[in-house]
Every structure is written in C-alpha cells, then in structure tokens.
Amino acid sequence: MRTFYCLLLFVLLSCPSPASAQESALTAREAFSALPTSIFENTAEGLEDEDKQRLLEDGQTDFWELAGESRDVIVFRALPFRDSGVALRLFRDSADGSAVAAIGTLGTELCTVELWRVDASGRTVPVDVPQEPEIREFFAEGQPVPDDVNPSVLICLGMGGLRAQPVFWNATGMLYLPLAHDIGYHWDGHRFQKVVRPHAEGTDAGGSAIYGQEAQ
Question: 3-class DSSP state for residue 115?
Fold first, then answer.
C-alpha cells in the first residue's frame, strides 16, 4: 500500500492537466485555499479550518505535512507515518476557462473524493462525481457474484483522472474477488469520460482497486 501511495503521489505531481486554449490561471494551492476542509472528515487526523492556512504557509501542522506541489496538484501526507494522505488535482475546462478541482483521500482502502468547479470569476460550487458503474461491469460476462457478498463502488482519485473502486464484504469482513475489468474516468478537456480496460495486476489489500495509470 505504501509503495502505491508513493507512486501515485509521484504520478499526480508529474502529469499536468492537458493545456487548453482558454486555460484558467487558477493554481492547486489557490483552489485548496478556497475549498472547505470537509474531505478531511474522512481521515483519522481531520483538519480544522483554522489549521488549513498554517498548513499552506508553514508546510506542516500537528497531523499533516505538505508533501509536494505543482501548478495543477497539491498533496498532503498524514503524520507521523506518512502512509496516507489527501491530494487535490485540477482539471481545466477548455470551453469556458473554469476548472474542476478533484480532492480526495489516498492510501486507504475506503477512499473518497469531492469535485468542485471553480469558474473564471472564482466562484466555487460542488459538482457531482461520475455515476458509479454497475458492479457487474467489473466482471467477465457470465461470471457470478457470490450470493453472500455485499458489493459497493467508490469513486476515488486515480493516476490519470478518477477511478472506480469496487469493495466487497461478507459476514467475515472485506474480501477479495478476482476482477476482469478496471474502470476509470479520463478528463477530455470538458468532462470525465468513462474508460473500461482489462484488469491490471497490482491492487490494494482488498484486491479490487485499479492501480494502473489511466489514459492521459
């Protein structure tokens, strides 16, 4: 899990959003400063509103550190173990000069993400994440899901956009099921487009998250 977390942090910082003809001047730091800290409610450490500016200015609070930053991405790691975090990535709209800020948790089995649109005037509004795929889309045709399994699908930050992460539970807890397909959402310059690919090996402890790089 830690190896993937470090890889994802590197890829997020090294892959800028596609350039556009009417590109927003917004930076990831500015977007993070303007957003609420609600995503941190999904972490063990949390982040109070009054600590957000200190995190940006000093690079560290009691429970978080600034791990890396570029124009399009800013990443924070949880202290003291640095094995989980929160990242924000900008996806710039080529049509109207706005940007979608995707902010989500990293390094945890039960990840989460929020999407916020920032228009050219700086107005920030929440937007819906892509519709979760049907659980059957992760499996080969005719491959059954056991009757005693309770599945759900999470939308999370991925290496090239967003990813759909299926999670499977039964009476004993979280479990592994072999998958046939990985499902992600690639930014086309205006919206997220669904991408289905053959399942790539290299998954989390639950065996159900896509850890391959999506289309850039």
Answer: strand
pLDDT at 86 over 80: yes
Spatial CB neighbours of 80, under 8 Å, sequence gap ≥ 6: none
Q: Which residues pair with 137 in a beta bridge?
A: none
| Burial of 82 (C-beta count, 10 Å sphere; 0-12/13-18/19+) | middle
Q: Which alpha helices (H) appear in 44-193, and where do they start and end?
A: 49-58
Q: Report whether pLDDT(3) > 60.
A: no
Q: What is the residue whose two structure tokens read 């499902």?
A: 183
C-alpha distance from residue 184 to each of 53, 73, 169 (Å): 32, 19, 22
Which positions ≥6 away from 58 have C-beta within 8 Å?
Answer: none
Token output for 59? 């690079």
* Dihedral, 186, 154, 204, 140 alpha carbons, nearest 10: -80
Residue 26 and residue 118: Cα distance in Å, rounded? 8
Task: Put the strands of the sheet holding 64-69 in their side by side order.
Answer: 64-69, 73-78, 85-92, 99-106, 113-118, 124-127
Q: Where are the alpha helices (DSSP H) in the chain?
A: 2-14, 28-34, 49-58
Q: How far apart are CA 197 and CA 183, in angstroms?
A: 6
Answer yes or no: are the C-beta atoms of 200 and 210 closer than 8 Å: yes
pTM for this entry? 0.83
Q: List Cα–Cα distances, 87 to 5, 22, 40, 101, 119, in angstroms.
A: 11, 25, 11, 10, 20
On whether the CB atoms of residues 133 and 175 are closer than 8 A, the answer is no
